[in-house]
Amino acid sequence: MGTARLSISSEVSEEERKRVCRGLFGYNVDRTAGLLKKPGLDINLVLKDENGEAVGGLFCDTFLYTLYLDVLWVDERYRGMGYGKQLLAEAERIAREAGCTLAHTCTFSYQAPDFYQSQGYEVFGVLDDYPEGIKQYFLKKRL
After folding, report:
1. Which of 72, 87, 104, 137 is 20 to 30 A from residue 42's alpha carbon, by CA?
2. Averaged over 28-32, what is the pLDDT?
3. Would you give the end-to-end CA distance of the chain in angstroms?
4. What is the model's pTM?
């Protein structure tokens, strides 16, 4: 058996990036007997003002019957008015209807750990090795 001659490059084409991601996804689907793809629903919600301009939103993935909250943002003009709670509640409702039993996310100390905890999420991990005292919180909630 010969030895492969491999090289590492920092120049990555879009097709190479896709190939690597497809490879990992395929491996994960195989190792979970397809469970990774369940329910396989993207939940994307946008908050719009009276002019139809996006002033907030929540973008989520679902896998392993779990809701992953990826991006949640509300424009400063509308913070503290309950819109984040409404977005979160709607995403959780859709996820529950699709069979999800767990939700999770991560947020930094300068973002919204208190918000998520006020919505029933519990901290299950903290990464506190960032500079300037910044911490990253990992949170979860049973749906």
Report:
1. 137
2. 96
3. 52
4. 0.90
